Write the structure tokens for this entry.
Amino acid sequence: MLVIDNLTAEIDGKTILKGLTLTVNAGEVHAIMGPNGAGKSTLSYVLAGRTGYEVTGGSVTFRGEDLLAKAPHERAAAGLFLGLQYPVEIPGVSNLLFLRTALNAQRTLRGEPEASGAEFMKLAKAAAEKLGLPFDMMKRAVNQGFSGGEKKRNEMVQMHILQPFMAVLDETDSGLDIDALRVVSDGINSMRGADRATLLITHYQRLLDYVVPDHIHVLMDGRIVHSGGAELAHKLEAEGYSAIAA
Amino acid sequence: MSALPTRKNEAWRYSDLAAVARHWPVAVEPVVVPAGETHSDIIRASEEGIRHLAISIGAGGAYRLTILDSGRAYGRIALDVTLHDGADFQLGAILIGKGAQTIELVTTVRHVGPNSTSRQIVRAVAGGTATTSYLGQVAVAREGQKTDASQSFKAILLNRGATANAKPELEIFADDVKCAHGAAIGEIDNNALFYMTSRGVPPAQARALLTRAFLSDALEGLDEATTEALDAEITSLLETAA
């Protein structure tokens, strides 16, 4: 699904990723944990293709294609989804218009027919209901006036409507209360499947109690320094990153 | 004012004076809203030229003016608005400049009677080497107690060669008034742009959506059919603005 090989990247001339290698197969859920400044968010932005994050070496192959050669919207159409740590507010653009535009732009790029108004509304209603986001909020401007938890739910609603092959979720658990964490976790779990994969980027083991990963990787100073199974989360929580890395 | 204006004249400082000369002198068009009546108009300006409207709103009258100014090499709309007792003036204006166009909106809103209200929302987009300007004066006479006036101007520059000018001016002689004004000139929000493209919206379409959303403030309060019609016009105008 996703093969990252010896990836190096910098922002403003400062090297953040220093040779990151990671393979995520279809059907798997991986978690990346690591201290502040390790490069977790940089990795997610590099994968999504954000301007300002410059790849200086290595390669990323997504479903057999060179991901780094694609523009951000082409990566989305290829089936990559980035759940943001801080979802952006877009005044004046309704959630429904935004998502319908995004879905149909993706479909057009893939050579598929666009979703009709009725088909889209059905998808949107089902996704909002599943993630416990009042449908009224779908009509409001994107994320505007949403609480932290509502913004994260909205990210999940978007993911369910867009149905990506791979979701990279950057601290989707931060700022969630227990109930919201459960709803969001259910949302992630329901996307699990043989032809999909998920990369969770998180600070805390809490989310991993609900979404049990197949593999956990420790990211420190721009590299994966340790990998293990789901049990690694508790060990990290108990002993800290430095102990594991040493 | 029949002498051709010069750069020294503050109200013409950002004008395309060669174009002004072609359209000089300008006939003043009177607009009268009788006391107690409510009128509304939409001005779609798309051919080069200057218009000067003298708008008088009688006691208790209300006037809503919507302006969509775009697609002309030089365009200037000047509004002289006089508000009598309890009158209300609402302006929503959209200025779209592209290429080397110069689009200007110059307003003078005079609150001459008590309890009158005015609200001006002006949104501008400039691409290419276009210039968009808003010069807005609010004058409250000694008799204009309890005036409630506001003006808001925001502009987005689509690239580095584009210009937006804002010149708010308040002249207040009454002591019990509310006058608010704000002006901001910026660029398209890059965070929003990235967010939209990361969901699959191509950059050009994302820019158009964000720009249209930005402009829509000026259409606030219009009925749904009018808003939709103007939205469609704006969308097609924006397609060629960058």
Remarks:
- DSSP finds four helices and twelve strands in chain B.
- The mean pLDDT of chain B is 94.
